[in-house]
Specification:
The complex is a heterodimer.
Chain A: H1 11-19, H2 25-45, H3 49-69, H4 72-95, H5 102-124, H6 138-161, H7 168-190
Chain B: H1 12-21, E1 26-27, H2 28-38, H3 47-59, E2 63-65, E3 75-78, H4 80-104
Antiparallel strand pairs in B: 1-3, 2-3
Classes of the chains: A mainly alpha, B mainly alpha.
Chain lengths: 193, 107
């Protein structure tokens, strides 16, 4: 007996289904089927793919932010960012701007570092605490991939352009590592939203 | 928020969802289209915003799920509190508009 043919999914719908994984599992459990159906409906009547993705991009950003900021993990991240800014402001006020602005470079790395770790944890699952489990999951592979890409970029930059005065790339790299570590600890302490 | 009395003011998204559901049960896509039509294209709501708002509205008792079996097409309807809140918010907005018109000399 042949099984009924499943309607072919568009590439946009498959991509949207993947992006939905960024939402909390409890939310997806309630609304995943509805959201996919809505996307398919919107795609059918959309004037262009660009307009559709513009709406979806804005919607994803706004609603994910709302879910995140309403969670315990979101409160922790806000506290970390406020603390960072306070320290930066106090340092600036008492000691004046440091030549090369290393704090600003480190902060520029810290934010994407946190964001990268958050997305990796959401998409590939929270890693187990035991160090013996490391290097075995897609999560670990993605983290190692990010590290290797960073180091490669840094080495290529040094090789072709010589080290920049004040080593801003190194400060950004250090900031990103700190950001990833901060988010890694936070997801273990507070759990994912 | 108490489940027995309206809490104002509402966010534009919540107001438009209540308005779209007034007098008719609708599923998610239908709500999005109705909101777009009611606001003359000013409010374009995506699925993430819509279901996030609906979850909160169900939690506070403004909206309830209808009896549907298809998980892709769940219908939503206004509760009595939802209707009362919509009326109260409309009245509040009218008062604000009246004051604004008077100040601007366009009454």
């Amino acid at each position: 007996m042949t099984s009924p043919a499943r309607p072919k999914q568009s590439r946009s719908l498959r991509l949207y289904a993947r992006l939905l994984e960024l939402y909390p599992p409890s939310f997806l459990q309630r609304h995943r089927a509805e959201m996919l159906q809505n996307f398919a409906d919107l795609e059918e009547v959309a004037e262009s793919k660009a307009k559709l993705w513009l709406l979806m991009g804005k919607d994803l950003a706004m609603s994910l932010m709302s879910h995140f900021l309403g969670s315990r993990l979101g409160h922790y991240v806000i506290a970390v960012l406020v603390t960072w800014m306070l320290i930066f402001a106090i340092g600036y006020f008492f000691y004046g701007p440091t030549p090369g602005r290393p704090a600003l470079h480190a902060f520029a790395g810290f934010l994407p570092g946190m964001l990268a770790m958050y997305f990796a944890t959401r998409l590939y699952g929270t890693p187990p605490n035991s160090i013996s489990h490391f290097f075995r999951s897609r999560f670990d592979i993605s983290v190692i991939g990010v590290f290797v890409a960073w180091i490669l970029l840094f080495v290529i930059g040094c090789y072709f352009y010589d080290p920049t005065r004040g080593h801003p790339a190194l400060q950004v790299f250090g900031g990103a590592l700190l950001g990833m570590l901060a988010m890694y600890i936070a997801t273990h302490v507070y759990g994912m939203p | 928020m108490s489940k027995s009395e309206p809490r104002l003011p509402l966010t534009p998204a919540v107001f438009h969802i209540l308005l779209a559901l007034f007098g008719e049960e609708r599923h998610g896509y239908d709500i999005m289209q109705q909101v777009r039509a009611d606001s003359e294209d000013a409010v374009k709501m995506g699925p993430g915003t819509l279901y996030g708002s609906l979850d909160r509205m169900i939690e506070v008792g403004l909206v309830a799920k209808g009896n549907t079996r298809d998980p892709r097409r769940i219908y939503y309807r206004l509760t009595a509190l939802g209707q009362a809140t919509l009326r109260a918010e409309t009245e509040r907005l009218s008062r604000v508009a009246r004051v604004a018109r008077r100040q601007l000399g366009t009454a």
